[in-house]
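Example record for the data management plan.
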Amino acid sequence: MIKIVRAKLHGLRVTGADLNYHGSITLDPEQCEMAGIYPLEFVEIWNKSSGARISTYVIHGEPGSQCCVLNGAAARTCQRGDELIVAASDYIEPSKLYDVKPRILTYLPNNEVDQVLEYDVFASKERAYDFRIIDADKQTLEDCHTYPNVDVTAIRENLAAKGWSEEEIDAFVNAHFTL
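Corresponding structural encoding:
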């Protein structure tokens, strides 16, 4: 068994801290549902602003509030406006990596969801367990986001074979990949 990320909120900003609460992180239930994070589930929290790393459980706040409130001892690890990564995990057999599609939400500075992505492990020519990030709504290779192990040459060839012009291919590559 290996421990993997199952769902992630990336770039969520702290909206409050309550030292005198019983503990946990309070999150918008609509965003939790979108990512697949459950109430009372333990999550890892990584503060991008301070480097602090903690583990606590999720409780739901007001739907639509875009809240992110650290409570109890966790309140000492952050300040309003700090940027966090909140990750839920699971244990699976490595052979199941192809079946798992962790959902990742990325955020704008006001805690509005910017992108809904999925992590995808797949078998490539180079390795049995390769990795890419795809748009959760489209889920096609053409919608892959920026990752260094993506074979951009093969993607260019594939798009050319589909009849895309060189200008369309360049625009696509520039929009989706860092070379």
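Summary line stored alongside the record: The CA atoms of residues 9 and 105 lie 5 Å apart.
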